[in-house]
Amino acid sequence: MEERRRGEDGYAAWSLRLIEMGLCPCEGCGGHLEGGICISCGCGHHIDDSRFYGRIAPWIPNHVPGRCSDADARRAEEARERERQARRRDSAEALGDPRR
Ligand SMILES: [Zn+2]
Ligand SMILES: [Zn+2]
Predict the structure, then answer these.
(1) DSSP 8-state symbol, 32
(2) Ligand 1 centroid to residue 49 C-alpha, Å
(3) Which ligand is closest in space to the CA of residue 43?
(4) Which ligand has an atom closest to residue 75 CA?
(5) How far is the CA of 62 from the centre of ligand 1 (A)?
(6) What is the pLDDT of residue 46?
(7) Torsion over CA of 25, 27, 31 and 36, rounded to 10 degrees?
């Protein structure tokens, strides 16, 4: 089965199929799921039947650094995004506050 990356076309359907087979869809993991948790990387994967979105597979990334490279990548991305927003806020305050 062709591997898909998060965000790619068809990723959702692909990860649903993997989870149905009891396999972890995290990039480079391929671990087995036990009770919705990957025994290899520690991420949570389960299938939700949503009335609005149909069948979806929410991902609960493992919060322990170094356990799952996929979760680490996501965390790094979020940290970068937070930094960008903080910087934007700082410069907006510096420009927009007439009392300074
Ligand atoms: Zn995994
Ligand atoms: Zn993982």
Answers:
(1) B
(2) 22
(3) 2
(4) 2
(5) 9
(6) 93
(7) -40
CA distances from 33 to 26, 37, 41, 99 (A): 11, 5, 10, 57
Closest ligand to the CA of 61: 2
CA distance linking residue 30 with residue 70, whole number of Å: 12
Average pLDDT, the chain: 91
pLDDT digits over 4-34, tens only?
A: 887 788 888 899 999 999 999 999 899 999 9
Here the tokens at position 82 are 């937070």
CA of 10 to the centre of ligand 1 (A): 19
Ligand nearest to the backbone CA of 24: 1
List, for residues 60-75, the tens digit of each pLDDT value: 999 999 999 999 999 9
Task: Give CA–CA dist 100/93, Å, rounded.
Answer: 9
